[in-house]
Amino acid sequence: MKDQIMAPDTVAADIVVSGRGVGKTFADGSVVALKNADFGIKRGSFVSLVGPSGCGKSTLLRLVSGLIAPSSGAVTVHGTPVTGPRRDISMMFQKATLLEWRTALDNVLLPTEIAGTPTQADRNRAMDLLKLVGLGDFAFSFPAQLSGGMQQRVALARLLQTGADILLLDEPFGALDEFTRERLNTELMRIVAEVGATTLFVTHNISEAIFLADQVFVMTSRPGQVAKIVDVDLDRPRPLSIQTSPAFNALVADVRETLGAV
Ligand SMILES: Nc1ncnc2c1ncn2[C@@H]1O[C@H](COP(=O)(O)OP(=O)(O)OP(=O)(O)O)[C@@H](O)[C@H]1O
């Protein structure tokens, strides 16, 4: 575990997403959502972002995605400043936002269709991704025929269909019941490891944040800053039962203490 914030330059070669003095002010300047945030995310790592409501977690994700621009500082991805949406980054939200009139397979194919005409190879890939998320038998089902958890799986497959190697997940399973959420978290860990993605995951849940992550970024309340980076040195694969271990509980206490302190 670290008490110091990692300076992005110290491991620059390994860093695929970095922020330097990132600030974001909304409206007439009265809402300072982020102030002077510094962070660096290592290639292939899983980073969870936790912090009090309104501390700027979603804002940070939207800045990395290029959906919004910083008011100060810069976000860099693969060494170049983010100036708008890019192909190597894909984002997923709490709501699956599937098109009701398209099958699961056709929803997964949507990013490919937006980019051009899907080939048979694209369709095969979409089918493989549906299998990867455990929905091989539901490729021709419509969203209304799928449970909330299954719809989020389709959204996850659609996210992976983009081919992006940086995944931004904003409370993707936040609206699901705890049992489904735990199952999907376990599968998410397996899937991102399999595709080798770098993942930034926003959650309100401290245990979930630690269970999934290599590092937890703990944010301060508004104006948001990265107050502390907690390294999660727990072996993988991680069974759900790891959450009752002393090492896990020590990490929970560390994050809680930091949140209390900030
Ligand atoms: N488009 C916007 N216009 C004005 N203010 C905004 C906008 N987007 C976010 N904010 C404000 O910026 C601050 C940070 O919002 P953000 O959604 O990033 O927080 P969060 O940590 O993700 O919150 P939560 O955990 O409740 O989802 C909040 O005070 C919010 O009201």
UniProtKB/TrEMBL annotation:
Keywords: ATP-binding, Nucleotide-binding, Transport. One of its GO terms (molecular function) is ATP hydrolysis activity. The keyword 4Fe-4S does not apply. SMART domains: AAA (SM00382). The keyword Ribonucleoprotein does not apply. InterPro entries: AAA+_ATPase, ABC_transporter-like_ATP-bd, ABC_transporter-like_CS, ABC_transporter_ATP-bind, P-loop_NTPase. PROSITE patterns: ABC_TRANSPORTER_1, ABC_TRANSPORTER_2. It comes from the Bacteria. Residues 17-246 form the ABC transporter domain. It holds the Pfam family ABC_tran. Belongs to the ABC transporter superfamily. This is NitT/TauT family transport system ATP-binding protein. The lineage of its organism: Bacteria, Pseudomonadati, Pseudomonadota, Alphaproteobacteria, Rhodobacterales.
